[in-house]
Amino acid sequence: MSTLLDNVGAAAVFALLGAVLFVVAFVVFDLLTPGKLWEEISVKRNQAAATLMGCVAIALGIIIAAAIH
């Protein structure tokens, strides 16, 4: 039972770490690109910017998952 709790705790820590790294990487990417991507997506409904950020989100998820694994 102790091993199960250790594994669940480790999974929770890695999930939290992955989420934090994802948000930080998203903010850094937003700062490196011209304009405000969040405003382009949410206010102006720019579909190209949303597609770009979706692709970035998938790529970041793959990179973070590989780094944690």
What does this structure look like?
The chain is mostly helical and 69 residues long. The protein has one domain (2-68). The protein is built from three helices and no strands. The chain has helices at 2-32, 37-42, 47-68. Helix 1 (2-32) packs antiparallel against helix 3 (47-68). The longest helix is centred in the first third of the chain and has 31 residues, at 2-32. It is elongated, with a radius of gyration of 16 Å. The mean pLDDT is 85.
Note the main attributes of this structure:
69 residues; mainly alpha; 3 helices; 0% strand; elongated
How would you sum up this structure in a few lines?
With 69 residues, this protein is mainly alpha-helical.
What topology emerges from the helices and strands here?
Elements: H1 2-32, H2 37-42, H3 47-68
Number of alpha- plus pi-helical segments: 3
When the domains are counted, the total is: 1
The secondary structure category is mainly alpha
- Approximately how much beta-strand content do the residues carry? under 5%
Per DSSP E runs of 2 or more residues, the count of β-strands stands at 0
Give the end-to-end Cα distance, rounded to a whole number of Å.
Answer: 23 Å
Percent in helix: over 70%
pLDDT < 50 runs, ≥5 residues = none
Average of pLDDT: 85
Gyration radius (Cα, Å) is 16 Å
| Largest sheet: number of strands, sense, barrel closure | none
Q: Please state the overall shape, judged from the principal axes of the Cα atoms.
A: elongated
Q: Element order, helices and strands?
A: HHH
